[in-house]
């Protein structure tokens, strides 16, 4: 079981306990994690699990609260199905260029569970640059099915799943356009971009193209610039990113969306609102420091935390 799977289910258990009322750190550790022997380690484990999740708050007494009961954790990330998609096209213009190679790799529970791929007859020549980049020549596509013939299968593999791609705007633009032309509509699905996920979860990774991200995780790309090779690599990257999200206390799609939106949000509102947000940040900081102090005290190694500028 990945940390994303474990983290998601544990956060759900914490949320349901806190619906009844505040619970002490050590009681949470015992009820949720089964830790009772070493209070310092138990406290640290709870702070690792919940400390970055804005839906939970801890006070100086070590009591945790659920801040907004209307925002209980939704379906755990580990329980969602993700359709990881890559397309190769005859060119870069969705209005005139067409899909010529498509792959869908399904991820669920921290693993690749299904995969599908096919060449597609685009009904038009392949750009020479694209031909040299992908190795797909026009003569390879003459006997391939047209998109309208595979549209029902594509639709089936996307419905009820989160649509994922590396630079999701490009792939979704082509797929939704082709599906709309073939069937009259594209499925209403959530979309997730692994480029944005990398920027959000791994901000120190400066290069975010698929080659760089795959190399960071030690993932080998087979058949680069072919739909299946790129989709499979993106699926493996997604699994690692979901695991990273879990380690940062993100347990469900709402939490992940909130984190992505928070990174794009600029300070706004009145000076009073900004001051109130700053005060809440200080309260969370002080609570974290107090939690660490309690953990250190329980271990018999109490160290005064360094003073922080407010």
Characterization of this structure:
- The chain is an alpha/beta fold.
- The chain has two domains: 20-71; 77-258, Nucleotidyltransferase, domain 5, CATH 3.30.420.10.
- 49% of the residues lie in helices and 14% in strands.
- It has twelve helices and eight strands.
- It has helices at 3-18, 25-33, 39-50, 128-134, 138-141, 147-158, 168-183, 194-201, 210-217, 227-247, 253-264, 271-298, and strands spanning 23-24, 56-58, 63-66, 81-89, 99-108, 111-119, 162-165, 191-193.
- The strands form two sheets. The chain has a five-stranded mixed β-sheet with strand order 6-5-4-7-8, sandwiched between helices. A three-stranded antiparallel β-sheet has the order 1-3-2.
- Helix 7 (168-183) links the parallel strand 7 (162-165) and strand 8 (191-193).
- Helix 2 packs across helix 3, helix 3 runs antiparallel to helix 12 (271-298) and helix 8 packs parallel to helix 10.
- The longest helix is centred in the C-terminal third of the chain and has 28 residues, at 271-298.
- The chain starts with a helix and ends in a 12-residue tail after the last helix.
- Mean pLDDT is 85; it is low at 301-305.
Question: Briefly, what is this?
Answer:
The protein has 310 residues and is an alpha/beta fold.
- Mean of residue pLDDT? 85
Largest sheet: 5 strands, mixed
How many domain regions? 2
Q: Looking at the chains present, what oligomeric state does this protein adopt?
A: single chain
Write down the Rg. Answer: 23 Å
Question: In which order are the strands of the major sheet placed?
Answer: 6-5-4-7-8
- With helices defined by DSSP (H or I, 4 residues minimum), what is the helix count? 12
Question: What name does the CATH topology of the largest domain carry?
Answer: Nucleotidyltransferase, domain 5
Shape: elongated
Order of helix and strand elements from N to C terminus? HEHHEEEEEHHHEHEHHHHH
CATH H level, superfamily name of the largest domain: Ribonuclease H-like superfamily/Ribonuclease H
Report the span from N to C terminus: 40 Å
């Amino acid at each position: 079981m990945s940390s994303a799977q474990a983290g998601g289910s544990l956060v759900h258990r914490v949320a349901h306990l806190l619906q009844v009322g505040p619970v002490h750190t050590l009681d949470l550790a015992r009820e949720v994690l089964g830790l009772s022997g070493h209070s310092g380690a138990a406290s640290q484990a709870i702070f690792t699990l919940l400390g970055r999740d804005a839906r939970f708050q801890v006070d100086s007494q070590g009591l945790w609260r659920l801040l907004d009961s209307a925002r209980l954790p939704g379906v755990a990330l580990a329980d969602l199905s993700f359709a990881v998609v890559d397309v190769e096209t005859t060119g870069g213009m969705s209005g005139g260029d067409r899909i010529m190679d498509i792959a869908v790799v399904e991820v669920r529970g921290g693993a690749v569970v299904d995969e599908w791929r096919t060449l597609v007859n685009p009904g038009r020549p392949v750009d020479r640059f694209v031909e040299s980049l992908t190795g797909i020549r026009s003569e390879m596509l003459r006997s391939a099915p047209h998109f309208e013939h595979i549209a029902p299968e594509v639709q089936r593999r996307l419905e009820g799943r989160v649509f994922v791609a590396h630079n999701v705007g490009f792939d979704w633009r082509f797929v939704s356009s082709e599906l709309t032309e073939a069937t009259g509509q594209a499925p209403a699905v959530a979309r997730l971009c692994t480029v944005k996920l990398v920027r959000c979860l791994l901000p120190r990774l400066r290069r975010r193209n698929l080659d760089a991200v795959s190399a960071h995780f030690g993932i080998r790309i087979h058949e680069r610039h072919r739909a299946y090779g790129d989709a499979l690599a993106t699926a493996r990257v997604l699994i690692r990113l979901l695991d990273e999200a879990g380690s940062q206390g993100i347990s469900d799609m709402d939490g992940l969306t909130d984190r992505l939106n928070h990174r794009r949000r600029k300070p706004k509102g009145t000076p009073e609102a900004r001051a109130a947000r700053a005060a809440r940040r200080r309260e969370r900081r002080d609570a974290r420091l107090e939690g660490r102090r309690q953990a250190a005290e329980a271990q018999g190694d109490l160290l005064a935390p360094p003073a922080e500028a407010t």
